[in-house]
Amino acid sequence: MILSFFDNAKVGEVPQKVKDVYVEKPEGIKVEIWQQNLEIPWSLVFLPNGDALVSERPGRIRIIQNGTLKEDVYANIPNVMHSKGSEAGLMGIALHPNFASQPYVYAMYTFQEGNVNDNRVIRLKHNGSNATFDKIIVDGIPAGRNHNGGRIKFGPDGMLYITAGETFERELAQDMESLGGKILRVTPDGAVPNDNPFPGSIIYSLGHRNPQGLAWHPETGDLFSSEHGPSGEMRLTGNDIINIIKPGKNYGWPKVVGKVNMKEFEDPIIMWEAATPPSGMVFWNNNLYVTTLRSKALMHIQMNKTGDDYEITRIERWFSPKQNEGVYGRFRDVTVGPDGDMYVLTNNRDGRGNPTENDDRILRISKMVAGS
User: Fold this and answer.
1) What is the CATH number of the domain that holds 107?
2) Residue 328: which of 52, 89, 32, 19 has the closest Cα?
3) Is the pTM here over 0.85, yes or no?
4) Residue 278: which domain range?
5) What would the pLDDT profile of 276-299 be if each residue is shown by its tens digit?
6) What pLDDT digit, counting tens, does each position of 120-136 carry?
7) Number of domain units in the chain
8) Are 287 and 302 in contact (CB under 8 A)?
């Protein structure tokens, strides 16, 4: 049977040579509570005028105007599948790359109506303080309570990239007839780009379990992605990874895990053996920052590129004194604002965290100015 074959996955090495360093109080930065009292925020984007949109997993997009979270909802997404403790619901949001002339907001969510249940990306028309439905961009992405992926971002090429999980059906990740367990790439209108690696298909890469984050290196243009490893599957724990995504490549799940040096699969550049489920990610001052959930840390990753390879030189676990403990709890997403500061979403009300008063929050992280 297919599943018994997959149960014999080859487990490889940890690719990075450095050990993580716990940094509960990072030096040289200032942390402020920018917003609070959100319900399971998942994704944050800034509008050209400095306002911001934040998605809440039950199905709402909220707007932050002039630094204030508005009570009136920017957009209510209908038919959202969501329940406490699951990973389904409203997830990633993104803005059209030419937002000034084409004011569209994109949203990915788990849809359920009658017998129809899928993950899909829709487009909304921005109307100032609210938005209205425009069109479906992609549908038919497999959906489930867990492993839905959910990140959407426009790349430097103007194309929309979508992370799709395999919904705990491992075989989907290697099935080219399914959009599950893939990273997808479409035009802003949802069409197949002419230069996609598989003609006529929106599939960009395959062999993924539950990819959660996307970020492009500001100098090299390489696409990085974070992905949840097989905790609790195949007698494995953790093995969460960071990949560099290349068009048409196979990242191995569920046949391989970790660095295996097999020509048919791409190896990760980082793997954490202890459960460190990563989510949203961004480059800030040429370093990679990755939010993590269970491990409750913001990962600060330094690296150098030599030829085609990246050498990981240091990994710090910010705001964490030790494994699975953190000052602010679970983190879901991180982005850089128009002011150059970094903004981080907590995720403590998702049914798996321990919420405190005024959770969930958006943290604002800025570099300290000398003498301040």
Assistant:
1) 2.120.10.30
2) 32
3) yes
4) 2-16+39-283
5) 999 999 999 999 999 999 999 999
6) 999 999 999 999 999 99
7) 1
8) yes
